[in-house]
Amino acid sequence: MNLHSVTRSIQKLASSVPKLTQASVGIGRLGRISLVTLLVLPLAVAFPLMVGRFQVGLMVKFLIFAMFALSLDLLWGYGGILSLGHAGFFGLGAYATALVLIHFDGPGATYLGLLAGMIVPALLAALLGYFLFYGRVGGMYFAIITLVVSTVLNQMVITFIEFTGGLNGLYPIPPLTIYIPGLFDLEITGAAPLYYSMLICLVLFFLFCRKTVNSGFGRLTRAIKDNETRVEYFGYNLANGKIAVFCLSCALAGLAGGLYAPAIGFISPDLLGIAMTTEVLVWVAVGGKGTLTGAILGALLVNLIAFFLSGQLVNLWYLIMGMFLVAIVIFRPKGIMGYLRE
Amino acid sequence: MGYEPYLVQFFNGLSIAAILILVGYGLAVIFGMMRIINWAHGEFFMLGAYVVFVIGEAGGSYWLALLIAPIIVALVGAIIERFLVRHLYKELLATVLLTWGLSICLRQLVRLVIGPEWRYIGNPLPGSMTFLGISYPLYRLFIVVLAVAVMGLVGYLMLKTRFGLYCRAVRQNREMAAALGVDTDRINLLAFALGTGLAGLGGAVMAPLVTIQPDMGLSFLGDSFLVVIVGGAGSIMGIVVSALLLAGVRAILSFSIDPVWSYILVLLFATVIIRFRPQGLLGTKREE
User: Fold this and answer.
1) Spatial separation of the C-alpha atoms in residues B188 and B160, rounded to whole Å
2) Which chain A residues are closer than 8 Å to B270 by Cβ?
3) ω into residue B259 within 30 of 0, thus cis?
4) Residue A332, class by beta-carbon neighbours within 10 Å (0-12 exposed, 13-18 middle, 19+ buried)?
5) Engineering a disulfide at B191: which of A305, B33, B153, B208 sits with its beta carbon 3.0 to 4.6 angstroms away?
6) Mean pLDDT of A235-257
7) B271–chain A Cβ distance below 8 A for any pair
8) ipTM of this model?
9) How far is CA B132 from CA A206, B5, B11, B81, B255, in A?
């Protein structure tokens, strides 16, 4: 036997091992994702059949929170821009939609309301972004200003009682209606119909976000996150890129808020508060920022745990939330999805 | 009648400014040294007030508590720096989240351990002094004197001692300071303890004047941010001037308009400052 040929075949075999493992990992990942979809989707569809009305109503809220988390993930996970006032935009959208629905009672009010819920926060974001990003205000200063803005919004909602109901909030808010001229004018009420429509909305939200992050614009936002200077050297307008992703994220947060108002039927200044901002940060951080699926997973998981724990232990739960945040930042900065992917 | 109410308001503003200087400078030291914003700063302020309350409950005197509170709070700060913050110096946004989470933890811990009730402690220095035609509470005058003394001490520490020299060296150029043999980790630890200790002292001093409750730090955090933003993290003078300015504007506005609106106006003003002078009103170089 020729020793040379043996060593060569062994070398060949050895060099093909990494390729083999790579291939299997690739298949494994693909398989895992499709497996997850196969498992999760039927479960999500069958959910209202398996549990009581109360739980379905609760899940409606969590699905909307998942959309809110997606909007933050776009800004924070992909754009690398930390906002400590994201709840301000969510709440602003909720109030804009609610006010339109309450004061304008006609066919298509839902569309008008949701449009207002998107446009009002987006305009505020555009104004802020233009003001700040062109002034090269970023990082921590931006975080402080967003916090300030959401605090101001919160105070305004509490102060303008005749519009917003002050601390008592707004109630009742007319339900969502699907209106097609000449065809039908359908009110979405009841737990299960709301659940399915929010599920569809969440899937659409997710698909839209995924398309966005995989587009040229999405690559630009990731580039901004990685290296701002280099983005500028390549001739991109850095400020415009940041403004665009900030606007988009705030419009989506506002839309989620806009869905929240009629779907839940009650809104209060808490929606714009610091606690809400903290929660959405925790959801995204737990799930894993910059993954989209992580945002959804985090929102649902944390809220479910919160629901089971907070009944008896309100203060303790909030403490656990803070410890979660600290622990994730220190030990698992990539969250659950980041951990799974590794 | 005439000028007296304004004079009283002026001195009220001065005593609030004195506390803002303590707390704001604490925030500025930490920010200046480590480039991190301590979102839990308001909670160290709150801890200071609670230490005073607990010692009072145990029968200790207020003056003893005033001495102990900053030390205990500085110790808590040092522990947090050593075991948590230290790992994240390189990641600014991570420290924001970390200190944000810590602030929640501290608030809830106090709420669970001591209780969510509103607490009050008596005025340790009752009586008032009559001057310039007004009669003014002694305790508030004491605050002003104390703040001047403490800031003088801190100024001495920063400008005349070896520790201060190292601090300023690390602030200007961390790598170079390390290369010259400065133990930057140690300096960070001490600076963090100093900053949180000052916040604790502010809380301890403020305790007899306000309701003590777990969320009391939040409003003070906002104010100390404003002080640092307007004054810049660089100089003691900047902090002093901006604290006086802020407290003065508050005092003037409180005469004419709703507190909510004065709050909103001041915040908007700070936003404009951040936009056009991120280094602060008196600062000379960009901070970021």
Assistant:
1) 18
2) 148
3) no
4) middle
5) B33
6) 94
7) yes
8) 0.78
9) 68, 12, 12, 47, 21
The full DSSP string for A139-189 is HHHHHHHHHHHHHHHHHHHHH-HHHH-GGG-B---PPEEEEETTTEEEEE-
3-class state of residue B119 by DSSP: strand
Q: Which pair of structure tokens corresponds to residue B14? A: 């001065």
Are B112 and A319 in contact (CB < 8 Å)?
Answer: yes
Distance CA A252, CA B142 (A): 52
Spell out the residues 6+ positions from residue A43 whose beta carbon is closer than 8 angstroms to its own.
Answer: none
**B103 shares contact with chain A (CB less than 8 Å):** yes
Phi, psi of B80 (to 5 degrees): -65, -40
Q: Which of B53, B58, B70 is nearest to B19 (CA)?
A: B70
Confidence band for B123, pLDDT divided at 50, 70 and 90: confident
**Token pair belonging to A30:** 């693909």
Model pLDDT for residues B84-122, shown as the tens digit of each residue: 888 887 777 788 888 888 998 999 999 989 988 899 988
User: Looking at the whole model, is its pTM more than 0.90?
Assistant: no
Residue B282's pLDDT band (cuts 50, 70, 90):
low
Judged by CB atoms closer than 8 Å, whether chains meet at A323 and B105 is answered as yes
Rounded CA-CA distance A94/A116 in Å is 9
**Token representation of residue A259:** 């869905």
What's the pLDDT tens digit per position in A105-141? 877 888 999 999 999 999 999 999 988 888 777 777 7
Closest CA to A121 of A148, A150, A97, A89: A89
| pLDDT at position A25 | 45
Coil, helix or strand at residue B130: strand
The answer to whether the CB of A68 falls within 8 A of the CB of A201 is no
% pLDDT > 70, chain B: 94
Are the beta carbons of B278 and A141 separated by less than 8 Å? yes
